[in-house]
């Protein structure tokens, strides 16, 4: 049965049962929740202190006093507590009052159950609370006038007060009924969230994610790039303009900043929606995985549109294999087929846009071509549009240009960019008041490369313009214009900055070596490392050594809010690694050799970890992780940033170590498999990456085979792979995995 239909039938059935209980305005019979009550009513008389369920309800509210949404309910229940004495005075053992009291106590017990749930449920019942408050105010008004005792002496006045409490009972029934239904909605949403989590989206790929801040991502400077942004927005909101807009430009032309600004504009303009965004990045592993793009887009769309959420849950439930397919299969199953549902189409606003930025920064070139082919083949006729930005690389350009009727090709206009770069430079360098001639010369050097201008501003403005900014500006302006190519302009700028940093005669040789070590590590790292992580992985003796090495490189490296270190722009690692660009300089990066060094450091980090078993000191190997209350705190305290990195990426660095000197790693790999394999598996399990372990060992076997490994080492890798595969396929994972690591297991692995 489809997920949506099953969920609705389930809710309807529960709601019908609720109506059968609460539907009547008359008081419930003694058969419902009153089996222990006296028929006469007089024997059930209780003192005010015996309102047990009311007291328990108030305690529950007090315990959640800091939670948002409890205000209206808390006010009402406290008001009822204030009226208990008035109620008892009016009752005087009368059967109608005793019966009503027991009914109220039943309702207080029901309400206590639901008030323990999320305040998102409670926050939607303020209307009913308002009705109850009116009745409470009436009772209190009568008491304040000291007329209640006189009123109840007359039969008619007694009936007035009794009816007031009956109305309170009726409103409490409505409150309980509404909370039950809202609870069902919460439960249904939680079940859908569990289904959508199977998409395994890259949450950090959203244009405004927390990790994007660490990369220094930002919108365009006010007043710049207005023409291109207006053009892109106009294309997005105008019908029949095609389904794909390709913005291309060489590295550093500001594509990501423009894409970010477009996302902001689409969010601000409520009529035309930003459906989803995926900003690719070499710096974040999940953001360079092409296989994450379509599932992440589907996930974001599902968060915005309820009808699409239902349909996607049905697709995931009925065809789980679709998640494992390539980009074309994912697009068909998760986007195209879902958008064929007429309820979904009716729900989507006209002009819903998906923004995919920096597609060229994804790792798998084949999959990148596949996602372009899929978008070009299936986007036409969909009620959504795609904005895709990338460098004009051959594989992407060839496909886009062959399908020009389905896209708008935007080549950034040099004259327009020059004006924007001048505006950016004037703002960024304002503290030192550069002349118009200086601004024009810098803009001319920048050409269409915004990254050139951004790097100049960072270099000149280093330490809040406290490090001889005029001298720094002069050194940039004196770079001789030896080439007409834009790549040469940015290369010369990078060379000037690095010469000033690493080529400083005042530096000790050890300080230069630290800078090169840090620089090469940031460039070759498979995931951003923190300052502390760099210190630990590279076995430096203090964090101060890392920060001292980073300071002169601030113009080309970025340190985020959480102290993660990344390159300022993708063009910088390209420059360092490509020796035809960086030349025979002291700062060029020998990536192959450095990957070998990082692989060695990863192995040593795991080797030197203590203890080698039960690293988080869990109380029992028979407890599931969910039963360990402070597991997250234990993991954070026991598994350092560098140890986490080493476990995740030793295999990747090993694969990239292809030089002759990499043969030295064969012995290190042997020692790792013999002595540290179980610790690695334990840590990967705790970090919820156990499913990556068989693949890592397969890659290690391939690398070892290419480098002339002995058969004994190959056999050892195969044994480790079988053990990892057994853990991955076993239903007993996580902390219970530790119980399998006995002496016999160690012996069989050795």
UniProtKB/TrEMBL annotation:
<feature type="region of interest" description="Disordered">
    <location>
        <begin position="25"/>
        <end position="45"/>
    </location>
</feature>
<protein>
    <recommendedName>
        <fullName>Nephrocystin 3-like N-terminal domain-containing protein</fullName>
    </recommendedName>
</protein>
<feature type="domain" description="Nephrocystin 3-like N-terminal">
    <location>
        <begin position="230"/>
        <end position="391"/>
    </location>
</feature>
<feature type="compositionally biased region" description="Polar residues">
    <location>
        <begin position="35"/>
        <end position="45"/>
    </location>
</feature>
<dbReference type="InterPro" id="IPR027417">
    <property type="entry name" value="P-loop_NTPase"/>
</dbReference>
<dbReference type="InterPro" id="IPR056884">
    <property type="entry name" value="NPHP3-like_N"/>
</dbReference>
<keyword id="KW-0677">Repeat</keyword>
<dbReference type="Pfam" id="PF24883">
    <property type="entry name" value="NPHP3_N"/>
</dbReference>
